[in-house]
Write a structure and sequence with these properties.
The complex is a heterodimer.
Chain A lengths: L1 H19 L7 H23 L7 H8 L2 H21 L1
Chain B lengths: L1 H25 L7 H4 L13 H25 L3 H32 L13 H32 L2 H5 L3 H26 L1
Helix pairs in contact in B: 1-5, 1-7, 3-4, 3-7, 4-5, 5-7
Classes of the chains: A mainly alpha, B mainly alpha.
Chain lengths: 89, 192
């Protein structure tokens, strides 16, 4: 099944980055960014193909995806807060 | 509709994970290293980071695929195949729960628990780890129960009589959501 191989492949890449590439070659922030990008890709494939959202009505797709903006907002707000707390410490 | 419940659940998990992010970020100098905390597996005492959680991730992804097979069998009104794939999805879920139980038990024996950490690192690591993986594990557990109920209904012919297997599709959405959350939990606790 193609979707299984895609998910397995993305996970395998994450493992290669984590275990196979030393920090001298790729710095932690770079690795972290790649992890997040790969995880978002996995999320896209699970939602689009496993949960079939890609093939549903456009109105359903938007009604699920658009509210996710609130999560982006929360993330931005709390990263800012976290930075502020870090400075307080 | 299941989709809208999942949206609300996504908000809940996001809130927990974002809170984890903020607390970890603001305490990054006292946060334990994931590779030092998680380096065991059954039979391997230390020195094997990511091995066990890799297995857990693999199990859950496979169970998502077996769930997909069950949904597709339902579309074809194939009772036997649907039951077969649902059964293996349940087994996958139980295997994941077993693994998570092992992980919790192992960490507990090392001194990790809510409000307890055996090293001089920040105790919020323990609090957040057990809370978030616990909440996720609870979802896996309820998903397994729901899947068992639906499997029984498939076997006694409820959906054949009904003329459609839409119920299998709905619980399939829930199960995929559980896998989706795990993908994020795995990334932010074990990788990043």
């Amino acid at each position: 099944m193609k979707i299984f191989l895609i998910l397995l492949g993305l996970t395998a890449v994450e493992f290669v980055i984590a275990l196979g590439i030393p920090l001298s070659v790729m710095a932690k922030p770079v690795k972290d960014t790649l992890y997040i990008v790969l995880t978002l890709a996995k999320a896209f494939y699970i939602v689009a193909y496993c949960m079939h959202l890609k093939f549903e009505r456009v109105s359903l797709i938007y009604s699920i995806l658009v509210p996710m903006i609130f999560i982006i907002g929360l993330l931005a707000a709390l990263l800012h807060e976290g930075g502020h707390w870090l400075n307080l410490h | 509709m299941m989709w809208f419940f999942l949206l609300s659940d996504a908000f809940t998990f996001s809130a927990l994970l974002v809170a984890y992010g903020a607390i970890r970020f603001s305490n990054s100098n006292t946060w334990p290293d994931a590779d030092e905390v998680f380096q065991s597996a059954p039979g391997i005492d230390h020195g094997a980071p990511l091995v066990f959680v890799g297995l857990m991730t693999f199990i859950l992804i496979v169970s998502s695929i077996t769930m997909l097979m069950a949904v597709q069998a339902g579309h074809r009104n194939n009772k036997k195949d649907c039951a077969f794939w649902l059964f293996w999805t349940i087994i996958g879920g139980l295997m994941f729960l077993g693994c998570q139980a092992w992980e919790w038990n192992h960490l507990h024996h090392e001194g990790y628990w809510w409000s307890r950490i055996p090293t001089d690192k920040n105790v919020n690591f323990s609090n957040l780890f057990f809370t978030i993986t616990g909440f996720h594990g609870f979802h896996v557990f309820s998903g397994v129960i729901i899947n068992i109920v639906i499997l029984i209904n498939v076997l006694i012919g409820t959906y054949t009589r009904r003329g459609h297997y839409l119920m299998v599709e709905k619980v399939g959405l829930y199960w995929h959501f559980v896998d989706l959350v795990w993908v994020f939990v795995f990334t932010f606790f074990y990788l990043v």
